[in-house]
Amino acid sequence: MRAVSKRIITVEDIYEFIDREETLLRREDLNLVVITSGEEALFRARNDKPDLLIMNFHMPDLNGYQVCRKLKGDDSTEHIPVLILATPVDEDNDPGYLTEAAGCDGCIEKPIQQKDILPLLVKLLQIPTRRHLRKNVSIKCSITDEDGQRIGTILNMTPEGFFVETTPAPWPGDIVTAEFSAADSDAPGRLQLAVRWSRDTDAHGPQGAGCEYLNPSPEMIQWLTDQIASSRTRGQ
């Protein structure tokens, strides 16, 4: 069964950004629910208790200030982080000032810029930053899980894990086995991995999964280290 680590209630403006943002956000298995009105945002927040609520300041019926004030004034929902997307009107009707007064956890001006919103999302969702840079590689392997065995290609890796392109993509939470053929690689044997996130055919980029190593042997650790070092030499 697919594991859910973060639940986000959001508006269409930000849904596509989160869906395609792989660098940090796609390492989490994000459950995204899209809302279209302030009343729906309030209803969903009260019933689903999400890890983050993102909404526009200007919404049908209730605006962002009204929704935020109601949530932050309720003991059962005051802990839910609220992020507002807004277009400033004038100094007397500034969404940033109004939402801050209502207890909002952040207000981002439109048009949405990655440099502005990504750090806030990472902070509010409490997503740990990546400890190592990814190195691009191209290594053939076979992937085995509950769906059987199929061919995969490792596209990038770190000392913690790698992204493998394969169809169908394994589910987050699955344990998979990667096996390396002597014809394609000098890797020693096989490796067990935990799937942390996956990307399907509807998302941007190749279909596959981000995996974390589970108890690799000393020989495998050395091989992985060599692969990452050589990719740096190649300027990848």
Protein described:
This protein has 236 residues and is α/β, with parallel strands linked by helices. The protein has 2 domains: 6-125, Response regulator (Rossmann fold, 3-Layer(aba) Sandwich), CATH 3.40.50.2300; 135-233, Thrombin, subunit H (Beta Barrel). The protein is 27% helix and 30% strand. The protein has helices spanning 12-20, 38-48, 64-72, 95-101, 114-125, 218-233; strands spanning 6-10, 30-34, 52-56, 82-86, 106-109, 135-145, 148-157, 161-165, 175-179, 190-199, 208-213. A 6-stranded antiparallel beta barrel has the order 6-7-8-11-10-9. A hairpin with a 3-residue loop joins strand 7 and strand 8.
Provide the fold topology:
Layout: E1 6-10, H1 12-20, E2 30-34, H2 38-48, E3 52-56, H3 64-72, E4 82-86, H4 95-101, E5 106-109, H5 114-125, E6 135-145, E7 148-157, E8 161-165, E9 175-179, E10 190-199, E11 208-213, H6 218-233
Parallel strand pairs: 1-2, 1-3, 3-4, 4-5
Antiparallel strand pairs: 6-7, 6-9, 7-8, 8-11, 9-10, 10-11
CATH superfamily of the largest domain: Response regulator
Order of helices and strands: EHEHEHEHEHEEEEEEH
What's the β-strand tally? 11
- Pick out the low-confidence regions: none
Quote the distance from N terminus to C terminus: 35 Å
Q: For this structure, what is the CATH class of the largest domain?
A: Alpha Beta
Strand content: 25-35%
* Individual helix count: 6
CATH fold field value of the largest domain: Rossmann fold
> What is Rg?
21 Å
Percentage of residues in helical conformation: 25-40%
| Structural class based on helices, strands and sheet pairing | alpha/beta
Q: Give the mean pLDDT.
A: 81
* Assigned CATH architecture of the largest domain: 3-Layer(aba) Sandwich
> Main sheet?
6 strands, antiparallel, barrel
Number of domain modules: 2
- The best one-word shape is elongated
Give the strand order of the largest sheet, numbering strands 1, 2, ... along the chain. 6-7-8-11-10-9
